[in-house]
Amino acid sequence: MKGYVQDIESVAIGNDDFRKVLYTAKNCQLVVMSLNPQEDIGAEVHKLDQFFRVEQGHGEVVLDGVKTPIKPGYAVIVPAGARHNIINTGTEPLKLYTIYSPPNHRDGVVHHTRAAAEADTEHFDGKTSEEF
After folding, report:
1. What is the rounded distance in angstroms from the CA atom of residue 11 to the CA atom of residue 9?
2. 3-state secondary structure string, the chain?
3. What is the pLDDT of residue 90?
4. What per-residue confidence (pLDDT) applies to 41?
5. pLDDT in tens, 17-58
């Protein structure tokens, strides 16, 4: 079978890494993230679309300067070109997953901490999780 089928809520909640790429297809990529209390992903702008879903914890999303509280069950769509950040404003890790369309990171990459992610200059290299 090609594709990825898992209980994404359990996978996201069980993840302790800042960023972990789970699956990369030609046109999208599934990634789980865990932000420690008061940690953020870092304000950024992509040339791609991005979807986030919060599975655990509380935080705030900032889209082009507009701040909105987020909690489990919240979805966020970030269109290409929007400056965005997600901040953990709670006291427990903020667990979420994100879908990049098209892919943004090298398939299978794991960054245990935000510092490790910032130190790595990796980007999607065209290789997917499976041959298509």
Report:
1. 5
2. CCCCCCCHHHHHHHCCCCEEEEEECCCCEEEEEEECCCCECCCECCCCEEEEEEEECCEEEEECCEEEEECCCCEEEECCCCCEEEEECCCCCEEEEEEEECCCCCCCCEECCHHHHHHCCCCCCCCCCCCC
3. 97
4. 96
5. 999 999 999 999 999 999 999 999 999 999 999 999 999 999
- Residue 123, CB-side half-sphere exposure with 13 Å CA sphere: 5
pLDDT band at 131 (very low <50, low <70, confident <90, very high): confident
Phi, psi of 115, rounded to the nearest 5 degrees = -60, -40
Phi, psi of 129 (to 5 degrees): -70, -30
> In terms of DSSP bridges, do strands 66-70 and 19-24 run parallel, antiparallel, or are they unpaired?
unpaired
Is residue 132 over pLDDT 70?
Answer: no
As assigned by CATH, the class of the 8-119 domain is: mainly beta
Say whether pTM exceeds 0.90: yes
How many other C-beta atoms are found inside a 10 Å radius of the C-beta of residue 94? Answer: 28
**Which residues, 6+ apart, have CB-to-CB distance to 40 below 8 Å?**
85, 86, 87, 88
β-sheet bridge partners, residue 59: 70, 88
